[in-house]
Amino acid sequence: MSISEPKPDALYEKICKDYEDLIKTLPKGKGWWVQYVYNYNGFWLAPTVLKTSLLLNTYFETQPSDIFLASFIKSGTTWLKALMFSTVNRHRYTISDHYLLHHGPQSAFINLESQFDPSADLTHQPAPRLFATHLARTLLPPCITSCKFVYVCRDPKDVLISKWDFMNKIRSKDLAPLTLDEAFELFCQGVSESGPFWEHVLQYWNASLDSPDKVLFLKYEELKKQPEVELRKLAAFMGQPFTAEEVEKGWLKRL
Asked: Dmax of the chain from CA atoms?
């Protein structure tokens, strides 16, 4: 996301034109928070997310220390953001002046789908830069997939209910509310923002098997069941392992 040179207007306009031409050719399905989603390379995306995906593949540049949090929508992303940010910054703040006391976990990460700006320069942000995405792995630029990824997976039954409830809250008032029966059918068919669910999960699961040093696959339920074990695993993966002294002093319980 760090761009060293200003955005070329001609190139940006070409991508926008390509997007307008492309979206006319794609399969269309019922959206959960917008009227329609479009199937692009096997995954259903809202129009703005599709456009951003095209821009990412042209403009995004990484740094070796970047860390990405990936997940299907409503899989525990906010909790992971808080854990990851607190872990890598645990020597920067005290309990009384912690960043998260005054800002939500969402602000600690840059969301690729909603906050990507081709003209922004983030090269001076402290490392590791933290990014979040709901995009399937195959929709991300190759430069991103060479970085470290933390992926969190959640029981699909809970994902369905949480996503249905959340999407109805942000759904346009010009559209009729999405019923749970409709949401269930769409979810099972895979017609769901970022879906199909299992294809999304399996891409990151397979990547974690192929490159365990690059992709850490976590389960939401395991985090709830044994948070200290999973947190130690997370910290080590991000290059910030807890020392024996930190463990003895109860750092794992503070985060």
From this structure: 59
